[in-house]
Design goal:
The chain has 376 residues and is of the alpha+beta class. Helix content is 33%, strand content 23%. It has 11 helices and 17 strands. The strands form 4 sheets. Strands 12, 13, 14, 15, 16 and 17 form a 6-stranded antiparallel β-sheet that branches. A 4-stranded mixed β-sheet has the order 3-2-1-7. Strands 8-11-9-10 form a 4-stranded antiparallel β-sheet, with helices on one face. The chain is globular. The two termini are 33 Å apart.
Length: 376
């Protein structure tokens, strides 16, 4: 089987993608052929030399790079199926795509729509589920509609900051409803890019301007008292999986806990500081609470029609013990310190078998979809 791993991209998480993709490509069983396609920060696609794959296989600490060779620029043919990807005038013969892309243009439904138009199997959520889950406000609204608990929040659009009277009114409303401290984050960005904590109005104004550098819509959220950060990995096809299919069955794995050594689990703590956080798997919860997290993670995954994989993130209020959904990541990190593969591994699903499961699930979902009518 020929598997294309696509990485890089026009995202604030470009560098994280290089690390995730190296781990994914190296984790693909050697019986398969791996084809590496790098996307630059400008959005151009390039087929990479086989030497790039050999590099990461011989050195597990190596990080992928993107060589920009115009003779290997990649184009895509709609409905091309296996031959949809072309480089140097030749089709690449790809059976399935594994996008190792995080954030904008990788996790937001745009590239998933491209794969759908190319008519090729791919790992991860559909365009609709990807775009919904990328938008933190819309995700919260859907969770709330079925009674799932979310952290209290206010959504602010860019138009608000253009009217000082409206802006002041929203700020006063946030202070009254949420109280300090508050967290401010872009609605459609990942890895805590543009996210910050505000302890007073001056910091809140600054945090709002920072978040608007990443998106036209932001969230202002209540800060739970010294909240515990719990995460849970989920795989499977929440829409159509057959009862006898282990490949597509929705499964929640052993929840883990993030114990940040920073003020909160920001981008620096996640990726730059090796001592940024302690990762506890399983989370220090009793079995009943662990099962509650797993069930809630599955419910949150299913109501969004998620498929493939996701990491569902929670907060637990240390005072009230109340559990809140925070967000869902449909293409979570696969770096050496990423929680998604670690939680799967703790449940007995080792990295290589996890990668194989995700590939097989992508093919199964594609094959099921080909049986549907698209015209009369």
């Amino acid at each position: 089987m020929n598997i294309a791993v696509i990485y890089g991209g026009r995202s604030g998480e470009h560098e994280v993608s290089l690390i995730s993709a190296a781990a994914i490509a190296n984790g693909i069983k050697k019986e398969h052929k791996v084809i590496l396609i790098g996307i630059t920060k400008a959005g151009k696609w390039y087929l990479q030399d086989d030497s790039e794959y050999e590099k990461i296989c011989s050195d597990t600490k190596a990080i992928l790079t993107i060589k920009e060779d115009e003779s290997k620029a990649v184009t895509i043919v709609p409905a091309g199926k296996k031959n949809a990807f072309i480089a140097g005038g030749k089709p690449l013969d790809i059976d399935v795509v594994f996008p190792a892309l995080h954030g904008t243009y990788g996790e937001d439904g745009t590239i998933q729509g491209l794969f759908e138009m190319a008519d090729i199997p791919y790992v991860g959520c559909t365009p609709l589920a990807s775009s919904l889950t990328m938008d933190k406000e819309k995700t919260k609204m859907i969770w709330q509609s079925v009674g799932l608990p979310v952290v209290p929040y206010i959504c602010m659009k860019r138009s608000v900051i253009l009217d000082s009277i409206v802006y002041d009114s929203v700020i006063e409303g946030a202070e009254k409803e949420l109280c300090y401290p508050m967290f401010v984050k872009p609605c459609c960005a990942g890895s805590s890019n543009g996210a910050s904590k505000a302890n007073n109005r001056k910091e809140l104004n600054f945090a709002i301007m920072e978040a608007f550098e990443w998106d036209d819509k932001i969230l202002i959220e209540k800060s739970l008292n010294n909240a515990r950060e719990i995460e849970c990995s989920v795989t499977g096809n929440s829409v159509t999986f057959p009862s006898d299919s282990e490949t597509e069955q929705v499964t929640a794995y052993i929840p883990g806990e993030i114990v940040p050594n920073h003020d909160f689990y920001d981008f620096d703590a996640k990726y730059n500081d090796p001592d940024g956080a302690n990762l506890l798997i399983p989370a220090e919860l009793n079995e009943n609470d662990l099962e509650k997290i797993r069930k809630t993670a599955c419910a949150a995954y299913k109501v969004l029609d998620a498929t493939g994989l996701s990491r569902v993130d929670f907060f637990i209020d240390r005072d009230t013990k109340a559990v809140y959904l925070n967000e869902i990541n449909t293409l979570p990190g696969f770096t050496p310190i990423s929680m998604f593969p670690k939680m799967c591994g703790a449940a007995g699903l080792e990295f290589e078998n996890l990668i194989e499961l995700l590939i097989n699930e992508a093919i199964a979902r594609y094959e099921a979809k080909t049986k549907l009518n698209t015209s009369r």
